[in-house]
Amino acid sequence: MSTQARGLNNFISDLRNAKSKEEESNRVEVELAKIRKKFNPGDAKLAADGSNPSLSSYQRKKYVWKLVYIHVLGYEVDFGHAEVLALVRSKKYNEKSVGYVALSLLLRGSDPVMVTIVSAMKKDLTMAPATSGKKKKGVIKNDAVQCLALCSLANISGLELIQAMHVEVQHVLVSKTSTEQVKKKSALCLLRLTRTSPNLLSGREFAPHIGQLLQDKHLGVLTSLMSLLNGLASQHAVDYESLIPHVVHILSLLVMKKQCAREYLYYRTPSPWLQIKLLKFLQLYPNAVEGHDIGMEASGYVSQLINVVSKILMETDVSDSINKSNADHAVLFEAVNLIVAWGTTCPIAMREGAMNLLGKFISVREPNIRYLGLMTMAKLAQIEGSVEGAKKHQATVLVSLKDADISVRRRALDLLFVICDTDNAERIVDELVAHLVVADASIREEMVLKIAILAEKYATDLRWYVDTILKLISISGDYVSDSIWHRVVQIVTNHPQGDLQGYAAATLFVAVSPHRCHETTVSVAAYVLGEFGFLIAERPGMSGEEQFHVLHQHWFNVDTKTRAILISTYAKLANLYEECRPLVAPIFARSKNSSDVEVQQRCAEYASMREAFSPEAVEDLLREMPPFEDKRRSALELRLLETEGEDSAAVTKASMPSEVEQQRALQSAQMLSNPPLEEEDEEEEEEEEETPPIDEQEDEPDEGEQIDDQEESQEEEVEDVGDEEEEEELPEDEEPLEEEDLEEDEDLEEDEDDNAIENGSENSLIFGIPKELIPAMRKAFSNLCTSPSGVLFENSLLQVGVKHEYVGAQGRISVFFGNLHSSSLQHFKVKVDQPHHLRMQMQGTQDLLDDGEPDSAGCTVATKTQAKLLVLVEVTAPFDDAPSMRITFETKKGERHDYPLRLPLVATCFMEPVNLDPGAFMQRWKSLEGPDRECQEVMKLPPYSSEIDKPYMDRVSSIIVDGLKFGRCQGVDPTPWTVSGAATFRTGAKDSNGNNINVGCLVRVEANPKAKAFRVTTRTLHPLCSKAIKNVSLVSIKLAM
User: Fold this and answer.
1) Per the confidence metrics, is the pTM higher than 0.85?
2) How far apart, in whole angstroms, are the C-alpha atoms of residue 295 and residue 304?
3) Nearest to residue 924, comparing CAs of 710, 751, 743?
């Protein structure tokens, strides 16, 4: 190998022949030292710009090329800048070309020497065009030099250089003397400059110049110009909206008239790249066709544009030539993207045509076309009214889900996600779950995430959602992230309506019963059973002790994270069930020395809790978790956003709440948030309070043999319902509320109203509740006894709304007093009766509560606002009357108002459902016979009421289950005209052993359709419970007609 390089080629050969990196590096260092010595000899004078004047043109070019090559290889070059600038200033084209190449690679815009080159670059950009005639060899070439300067400026892009040069670049672009080549380069250079400095141009001033340039006939200039225009319009779209007619005209020439120079035809398609850029520009203006009469010729460019897009849709087809097919389909898909951008403003026929065309493309053999078809159809399906067209191709999309190409499978999954709605959710989810069994590992995690989101968004029955997630865990448990099962826990916790919590607990109990199950199943089962296991504790084989054994069999097969959850569950089970405490204590003792800090800490704290704190404090510490905060986006949606990005069709679909989610949110808002009066934001004031766990129900008689003769005689009893004592038949004009105790209370209210009105006649100052409002008030009270929220009272001055919820023996009642009057209500006071069987704590708006002091002024409720009262209650004994609430206030005219009302706080509010099999129910029913335990009444419906049919009985069953909170006992009733239920009345009173005192309750509602009559029979251990349940049942059944 030669030790001295002879020319650039020799130097490159030496480097290529180097046998090691070290040898190459040594050769580079030798050459750099030689070049540095040539550029700056110690005995020679340098020029004013720092270059060596003694170097010949050949030497300067050769050494600069070597520096460029060394830089390209990755070595640092920090000298020779003066020689580069000298080449740029040269008047010879071959030297200037080397100088500009080196300038683009070796220097940056922030280098100080760049200031000295600005004048030379300006001169090169603005030099006059060459005159016609013969050019001498080596002299300057005007357009070539301008292109060199533009390319170099675009690559350097320093802020100071941009500020100094952008005006010249604009002048070159709009100059009529610039050649096509220079215009193309200047447009792309200006695009690069505006990307670095977005506010470089004023769109309103520059848009007319672009409009003139768009009239150029050269398609190359138009293509570069459209790149610039797309970049500018994406930053400031409004400034360039006036150019839409120019763009539509160019697009029309290409598509409709096929006007295109031969060199820009690509497989007989006129300049497809320019068509794509034109369509992309139009996509920035989704409202371009809005408000125009598309069918009229007078609509100008809009009608022209519709015709162009329609022709693209109609004439594009799959071609035998791959190159032509790719070009045509690129234009087609941009046209469909334009339709997507127009959204609902696009003609329906055009959207349907695009959907049908895409349906053809997703079934072709070419994977690239299938991929684009699936992706574009997913975007098109997001337009309102277009999803039905996409549903027609659901079978084809499901086939694509099994495609050999992973990218096609992903796009098919996205499209299925987008077209899913309430109608087809179960089918699509079931298909995806079935395909999950054979799906590749590379797509399983994405499938699991999207299945979980779909199941949640479109679950009309949340029990199906729970079942679906358990299927996901059993099939692909390793791909079920923590956020998915956390979401299950959140939904189950936040939806206490119906039997979701009990169903989830029972289902997870069964799922975790086998010795081998996935660890995720153990985690979610441990949490749910710890929180809601008490709901299934009375079911056969699901006692607290059985729950412990089923969970603990997995103790040695799970990691420390799951063990920590199990430990908390064990503590809650031990708190609820005495028989679990000796089982849990040894586990806590052994795990105190665990190597995992979390497990060790939990065991130590739970083990010492009962010694360190009082029983009440332990109950408070281990009570149920409060509802989770509902965020705008769930963790699953955020995970999808993280993996697919904001522009994904799936992310857009996931962010839009479905109808089912909106209904679910409305139900939650009615139960957990504001009542009908919603004048103010009350989220902070209405925070959910944690409630202590519910103790075991008291022991009731064991299950025995079924009483066959009792069942056989039920039909005869029902037949006789209508014939029993006619004196019990109710008059037709009887009001809905029929409880004896509440009738007396309301009669008292009527007396008080009469007195108030009489007093008002004496001094014209005191007003009570008018008699005509009493029936509506009674009905509102009766409705609130079985519903979580509603309006208790309303007239022209005041609206009283109530929201109440109960867990076990405790309840939370929020009362809202809304001022409907045009002026404020003054001296507003509320007094609530506190009977001996209820422990109450009350807090509300300042000075709202009437403390009995004569100097209490009350509060002022401004117009269109509301005062608030929060009542926390715990029941200590059975009762059959509702606490009274008296409201007093004055108007600005001096009128005093006194309204005696009743809080809808009845015994059925504290019921918890119990599910019994037929044998157990009949045995307990038999054991509760006796006058002190049974309460029975026959009610005959008025003649004008609806017939007793199956829908009526379904409403009665719903009242028993949802309104009275009884568990429906299936199989007990021999006919469809009988409904039986069981529940437990919870109290906060303690027996001698410290356990809560509870009362078992049974109810039977028997109907005689021919006589239009019902017989309600209740049996409990306490006569007041029997009476209260019977009264509420009668009222609710009559309201169901």
Assistant:
1) no
2) 10
3) 710
| DSSP string for residues in 485-547 | HHHHHHHHHH--STTHHHHHHHHHHHHH-SSS--HHHHHHHHHHHHHHGGGGTTSTT--HHHH
Distance (Å, rounded) from C-alpha 1005 to C-alpha 1015?
A: 6
Largest CA distance in the chain: 134
What pLDDT is recorded for position 993? 67
Does 209 have pLDDT greater than 80? yes
Count of alpha carbons within 13 angstroms of residue 744, beta-carbon side: 5
Tokens read off for 692: 């202590």
Local structure of residue 818 (DSSP, 8 states)? E
The SS3 call for residue 1008 is strand
Residue type, position 212, single letter: Q
- Summarize pLDDT for 774-821 with one digit per residue, the tens: 888 888 888 888 888 999 999 988 999 999 999 888 899 999 999 988
Residue 448 has pLDDT above 60, yes or no: yes
Do the Cβ atoms of 574 and 581 come closer than 8 Å? yes
Per-residue pLDDT tens digits for 958-985: 888 888 889 988 888 778 889 999 999 9
Quick: pLDDT tens for 26-38: 999 998 999 988 8
What's the rounded Cα separation, in Å, for the pair 63 and 285?
53
Q: In the Cβ-directed half-sphere of 344, how many Cα atoms lie within 13 Å? A: 3
Which of 493, 558, 467 lies closest to 520 in space, CA to CA? 558
Q: How far, in Å, CA of 770 to CA of 749, rounded? A: 11
Burial class from Cβ neighbours inside 10 Å (0-12, 13-18, 19+) for residue 933 reads middle
- Quick one: the chain helix, strand, coil %, rounded to 5? 55, 10, 35
Give the mean model confidence (pLDDT) for residues 910-926.
Answer: 86
Beta strands of 110-247 (E only): which ranges? none
Q: Rounded distance, CA 1034 to CA 934, Å?
A: 15
Q: How many residues does the chain have?
A: 1041
CA-CA distance, 695 to 808, in Å (whole number)? 8
Q: Judge whether 265 and 249 are in contact, CB under 8 Å.
A: no
Strands 896-902 vs 766-767: parallel, antiparallel or unpaired? parallel
Q: Cβ neighbours of residue 908 under 8 Å, at least 6 residues apart? A: 785, 786, 963, 964, 965, 1028, 1029, 1032
Distances (CA, A) of 500 to 462, 584, 625, 967: 7, 28, 16, 13
Strand duo 798-807 + 789-794: pairing: antiparallel
Pairing of β 1013-1020 and β 996-1008? antiparallel
pLDDT of residue 693: 35
pLDDT tens-digit series, residues 497-546 = 778 889 999 999 999 999 889 999 999 999 999 999 888 988 889 998 99
Rounded Cα distance, 657 and 662, in Å: 6
Judge contact between 885 and 853, C-beta under 8 A.
Answer: no
Helix or strand or coil: residue 586? Answer: helix
Half-sphere exposure of 294 (CA within 13 A, CB side): 15
Is 903 a residue whose pLDDT tops 70? yes
Closest alpha carbon to 413 in 386, 465, 377: 377
Residue among 233, 231, 175, 228 nearest 204 (CA): 233
pLDDT score for 554: 92
pLDDT, position 133: 45
Place of tokens 């006589």: 1011
Q: Name the strand (E) or helix (H) holding 800.
A: strand 798-807
Which of helix, strand or coil describes residue 698?
Answer: coil
**pLDDT, tens digit, 9 for 90 and up, residues 635-679:** 777 777 777 776 676 777 777 677 777 676 666 555 544 443 333
Class of residue 489 by CB neighbours under 10 A (exposed 0-12, middle 13-18, buried 19+):
middle
Residue 984 Cα to chain centre, angstroms: 38
The pLDDT tens digits for 377-416 are 888 888 877 888 888 888 888 888 888 888 898 889 888 8
